[in-house]
Amino acid sequence: MVFSDRSRGASPLRPGFNSVTSYKPEGLSVADHLHPVINAGRVAVITGAASGIGKAAALEFAKIGMKVAIADVNHERLNELAAELIQTLGETNVIAQPTDVSKLDEVVRLRDRVYEAWGEVAVLMNNAGVGDRGTSWAGIDKWKKVFDVNLFGIVNVQQTFVPSMLHQENQALIVNTGSKQGITNPPGNAAYNASKAAVKSLTEGLAYELRETPNSNVTAHLFVPGWTHTGMTSSGSSEKPPGAWSAQETVLYMLEHVRKGDFYIICPDNETRNEIDQLRIMWAASDVAEGRPALSRWHRDYKALFSEYMREGLESLER
Ligand SMILES: NC(=O)c1ccc[n+]([C@@H]2O[C@H](COP(=O)([O-])OP(=O)(O)OC[C@H]3O[C@@H](n4cnc5c(N)ncnc54)[C@H](O)[C@@H]3O)[C@@H](O)[C@H]2O)c1
User: Fold this and answer.
1) What is the pTM of this model?
2) Domains in the chain, start-ordered, CATH in brackets?
3) Residues with CB under 6 A from ligand 1
4) Could you report the per-residue pLDDT of 221-261, keeping only the tens digit for each?
5) Which InterPro entries does the entry link to (predicted)?
6) Among 53, 125, 133, 270, which residue is least crowded by beta carbons within 10 Å?
């Protein structure tokens, strides 16, 4: 791959290529049905399950025949989804537990209810999240809220569930939801980006700790959705923009890669394919390694260089 930063020349920031128009998994194989964790009869717990990606995940786990525990602060939507899940799974295989993940006692209640009912957790999906635009020096309450939910929500769930999951004999996995904004840090959402960077960091640490724990049967995965049409991104519009993926597409991609055992699950969308993400991530890392200005991708002196880098990088990846 050529990562020349010497040559210059006009190049579009988004080079033309055949974008991904929709995501369809290659098809369930026999191996998928035999997956030890994502399998009928086992238990999935999803936070932030009442909308968007969490809801799509609950519906996919129900299709597989897993028992599903859904948790959310939005009680009305939670109950609506529970009614839908019960139609597929029956009442004894669905738990709807109103839970604010930023409150430890509520997370403890969720765990107790799940273990009392089913005695295990196979898939723990830390999905609850909130986003807000803002700068680094304004909106202290917003900063606290974003960190309480996006970071401490996951910390609370990990502290509460992981010790119990480690005691189980059966294999289990934890999926923490990060964001590309926590990796490449685009300007405009300072608190959200910082919280998602922390989620990446804590999930990498968790994966290492689980790997090094004797007899641990639990793995961790960092799930990074692409642009997905959900409550968070839709601004109230029900129509999915062409560039975004549906929540179901994003969840199917995540499941396929969790089944493969991938740790980093960086989802594309209809605007941004994997190669573009790879190049952007490497550029961001090179800011640090090469001592460039912070966020040089958006620095007026580096824009042309970044465009050139993307053009050459994509050409070499496509060769
Ligand atoms: N949609 C995207 O393009 C996108 C991209 C990258 C990452 N993400 C991440 O995906 C996750 C799911 O987001 P989404 O896009 O489906 O948004 P969404 O708003 O549709 O769903 C988020 C859910 O989390 C719930 N929630 C909020 N605060 C909570 C709390 N304190 N406790 C429990 N539940 C709470 C909300 O009620 C909502 O049901 C989030 O972590 C988000 O940051 C989304």
Assistant:
1) 0.92
2) 30-272 (3.40.50.720), 273-319 (no CATH)
3) 47-48, 50-54, 72-74, 99-102, 127-131, 149, 153, 177, 179, 225, 227-228, 230-233
4) 999 999 999 989 888 888 999 999 999 999 999 999 999 99
5) NAD(P)-bd_dom_sf, Sc_DH/Rdtase_CS, SDR_fam
6) 133
